Structures are given as structure tokens and as C-alpha cells.
Amino acid sequence: MRRSSTISCGTWRQPIKWNAKHDRFYEENARRQRVFCASLADVFDNQVPDKWRHDLFGLIASTPNLDWLLLTKRPQNISRMTSPLWSGWKNVWIGTTVENQQEADRRIPLLLQTPAAVRFLSCEPLLGPVNLGEWLLTPGWSPSYYDPDNIHGYPNAEPTNEHIQWCVVGGESGSGARPMHPDWARSLRDQCQAAGVPFLFKQWGEFVSVSEVEGDGPHHQFADGATVRRIGKKAAGRLLDGRIWDEFPGVK
Questions:
Q1: What InterPro entries does UniProt report for this protein, alphabetically (predicted)?
Q2: Where are the domains of the chain?
Q3: Core-most of 23, 116, 187, 245, by most CB within 10 Å?
Q4: ∠ at Cα 18 (12, 24), nearest 5°?
Q5: What pLDDT, in 10s, does the model give residues 141-157?
């Protein structure tokens, strides 16, 4: 769904159909259906018409069986641009883009002021090392294994407004792509694993670690000697240390 105010009625009706078919989707996939809203735009951009946002929030409110993912680079706008009906809807995941430590320090505190079912980070394109520190969940608890009766021995805790509950990481793609140091991605993975936070490695982008994929292509060497090769987004793939990382938060 794009941010244009001229979206067709058919596009707006599609989530209504998905919402009505929730039981079938859940039976086949063992999870709720997710809608990544305006993946090529920013719902909280100042240039997005208020009428479009109002219509979107009305649609979200009318589709409680869908989980809506809203990603923004402007978390400072969320509180003044959300609907008066907004009260931390249980079917809304709010995320912000974090490319480096500077943006993490600036955007994450603003994100965590927003009530939502899930608060997540999109560290894509990842352009520098990021230490998430106290913004991650308490070590030992994973929203993927929420266990209120402690049947499986997991801590009996719930997510709070003070922590990040999901982290998506990826390198940059396109003709002007900048390389991602492999250890920047590994560090975020390790931080998430230590805190029990789901981690999704979306892509290497244009450059891939020479230890991950063999082949030809221009090399880029970082100051510490780590080397990546430019082979294109498709060829670079999604393997990080030999495996796919496709973790998602579980929502009660």
C-alpha cells in the first residue's frame, strides 16, 4: 500500500478480505497475517496527507485479525500524527530505521514512547556498528516463547514499552550501495540472541562477505582486514554464517 491519496478502492478493500479469512490463514500458517504498510513510503512523513493517514488508521482499526507493520524514519512525528483512537492497538507493530549508532541514539528513545503491540528496528541499510544495550529485552525472555504458565521454564514476563522486540538487519542495494562489514550484522545478531530477541537477516545487499559466497567481483577491504565482494543483491543472498535467520516475534 503506497502513500498516494489516489489509492484504488480495490486496494483498500483487500485487507478487509484478508481479515475475513483470518481463520483459514491461521489454520494454514499457524500465525496471524502480516501487512507491511507502505513499504516504499513513510506513513509519518510530513508530506503524507492527513486524510490518507486517517483512512489508513480507520482500516487498521477495522481489521483486528491482521498485524500491521508501520516503519518510519520519523518517530518524532508519531505521537502528533496518530489517530485520536490510537491507544496502542494490539494489531500494530511500529518500527524505525536505524542505519548506525547516531540514528539509534536519536530514534529509538522516540520509538519506545509509542504504544504498540511490537516495537522493532529495521537496521537496513546497516552502515556502521550499533550497540543496542539497554534497549533490548531482559536477557532470557523471548516473545517467540511467551509462556504465561511457565510450563516450559521460560521467565514469566511480558514485553514493555522500554524495550525493542524485533530486529531486522540488511545491507544496502542499488548502484550506489555502500558495503556492510560482516561483523556489524553479526554483532546485532549476537546481541539479539543474548537477549532472546528475534533476529531477521534480510539481505547482504550488493556486497557479501568473501567467507560466505565464492565468486568473482570487485573487493572492498575494511580497515581491520575484513573483505567483502560486490556480486549483486540476488547472488549475495541471505546466509549469515551459513544459515538463514528468519525469526519473528510471537504475539499473544
A1: DUF5131
A2: 10-71, 98-138+159-251
A3: 116
A4: 175
A5: 343 333 334 333 333 33
